Every structure is written in structure tokens, then in C-alpha cells.
Amino acid sequence: MTATDQDRPPISVLLPTVRWTGACDEVAGQLGARDELLVLCDTDDDPVADRRGTTPDGVRIVLAAEPEGCSGKANAIAAGMEAAAHDRIVWTDDDFAHPDDWLATLNADYERRGPTTEVPVFVGKDPLSRLFEPAYAIGGTAAVFAGGIAWGGAVVFERDDLARPESVSDAAAAAAGPEAALLADLRRTVSDDGTLTEYLDVTAADRTRTVPAGGSIRGSVERFVRFFRIVRFHAPRAAAFDVAFAVSSAVLCLLAPVVGAGLVTAIAAAVYARFGVRRATFLLAFPSVLVSPPLLAYALARRTFVWGGRRYRWRSLFDVEVLPV
Fold first, then answer.
1. What 8-state DSSP symbol labels residue 261?
2. For 280, which DSSP code?
3. Rounded-to-integer distance, Cα 269 and Cα 262, Å
């Protein structure tokens, strides 16, 4: 145990996944002697459950059970919070690279400024998700950085940092405290990070993580629908602004294509430059703007979406039905 390990509080890292991925090895290799990594899956049927008894030191497999009335990820995070042994918590995902200093850097961020989130940059793996990259840079990367939004892929906080929002309607959970209310909300909604943002004042680190997105046209459409639902239910004013901005930008690009193309491309280029995104996809801002209104209309009209092998009907913030795919 190093002096640094002795001086800082131990950390519980929560990582939802159904398979043992490279991210599991990366995070496990960064644990201090008193830290723990909880790999969160649903049931014994998940491949990662077979790793029980053979995991590295400090790693536990936690079975969250099948979700009922919430997403699989939100259910897994709630189970992980209950199983975690420590007060300092890190949430992360299995779909991006965790460099050797990732956990130490995130912990150092907490020591300097309290609850901290890193910032995602979504990189497309199929034609449609690549077309979405400028929109995700503006509405995802820049929004997380500027809007006090917790990204569930890399966020650190302590249990005492949680504060109950006025929107909590479960009287029993509210009386039990902010953490109980958070877990109750997670078990009746879809978005883990959207829900955490309701309970946590978080600062964004000026640091990004590249997250692969999509892989198929169908998957990219489902992701778009899910992302819009998250904004719609957790930040309805922002959703209304997004729709108005998309429609007005598309109208401008249609009526004055030279001016419109130049403006939206310049905005995307500025966001890319601000966050060090070295990809030529900012040039797709113009066609991205043109397809945004019909995609938003589709997202508004859709009644269900697929995520992680499950289909969800998400009617309102705390009204979720899990359906067979």
C-alpha cells in the first residue's frame, strides 16, 4: 500500500456490463489496496457472472436481477450503490478506454473540487452515427461540460454529496434521505446519469473520453430516440430549445444554403476545436442539420426504443415498461 493509498479514502467503482471487457481489466489494474470494483450484471445468465471466484483482487461480481419498471443499467447502478462498501463512489462504463491514470486522476479531481465528471465525445461506427457526430458534440459534449450534467461513464462523488431534489415524490424514500430517494428513482426510470444529475452538483473536468457510438443504422436510430427522451424528460426546456434550434437551422440552410452551411459548420468546428476533437466530421454539420427535424419528429412519435437487448416504453420520467424485443 502506497502513502497515497493510505492518505485518501477508499473508492468503490461501479461498472455495469454483461461481459468481462477490456475496461474491466483496465479499471481492476488501477485499484488501490482498499478500493473495490463492482462489476454489475443482471443474472447468472450473463457471461460475466461466470467470472465469479476468478476475478482479480478487489473485484466483485454483483447480480442486480432483471429490471422491472426501469432500465437494466439504472437497475444495475442501484444494486451497485447498495453493495458498495465505501462512501466515495465512481460510476463508469465498459465502452471506452480507461488509461492507466484514469482512476487516480478522477480521484485527484474530487480532492480539488468535489464531485467531478469527465466529458464524452461520441465517435460514430456507422454512417448514420458519423452523421450525428456534430450534433452529439454540440448537444452532448458541450452540454455536459457547460451544463452541470453528470456523465455516467466517468463521474466521482461521495454519498454525502447527494441532495434530494424538490421533484422527489416518493415520501418514504424522501424521508429516508437523498441516497434512498436516488435509488428509488433509478428503479423507476431509464437514465442513470440523467437521474444522478438531479441529485448532484457536479463540475466537468476539462478532459474528454472518446466513446464509440452506433455500429448499425438501426442502433444509431435507437440511440437517437433514447438520447432525445432523456433530454425531454429530464430537461424539457432544453428539449424544446433543441427542437426549435433544429427546425430554425434547417430552415436557414434550406432558404440560404451558403450562409446556413457556413454558419452551422463554423459552430461545429468551434466546438470540435474547443474539445480537441480531431475529426473531419464537423464538415457533416450541414447535412446533419437537414436531417435533424425529421429524426426529431420520429423520436417524438416513437413509443418504444431498444437499448442493451431490451425494449422500453418510456411514457414519462417515472413510468417505464420493459417489453420483449
1. H
2. G
3. 10
Q: Are 8 and 87 in contact (CB under 8 A)?
A: no
Cα(256)–Cα(236) distance, integer angstroms: 30
Q: Which neighbouring-strand residues pair with 157? A: 89
For the whole model, what pTM was predicted? Answer: 0.94
Q: To the nearest 5 percent, what fractions of the chain are helix, strand and coil?
A: 50, 20, 30
Which of these ranges, 11-15, 164-168, 190-194, 262-266, has the smallest mean pLDDT? 164-168
**Strand ranges in the chain using DSSP code E only, listed in sequence order:** 11-16, 36-41, 59-63, 88-92, 116-124, 154-158, 203-213, 305-307, 310-316, 319-323
List own/partner pairs for 204-207 with CB under 8 A and 24 or more apart: 204/116, 204/117, 204/118, 204/119, 204/144, 204/145, 204/146, 204/148, 204/149, 205/106, 205/109, 205/116, 205/117, 205/118, 205/119, 206/119, 206/145, 207/105, 207/118, 207/119
Q: What is the mean pLDDT of residues 19-46?
A: 97
319: DSSP letter: E
Per-residue pLDDT tens digits for 102-151: 999 999 999 999 999 999 999 999 999 999 999 999 999 999 999 999 99
The 8-class DSSP code of residue 15 comes to E
Closest CA to 106 of 87, 85, 92: 92
62, 81, 223, 230: which is closest to 143 by C-alpha? 230
| Phi/psi of residue 138, nearest 5 degrees | -80, -50
- Sequence letter at residue 16: P
Looking at the DSSP bridge assignments, the partners of residue 121 are 210
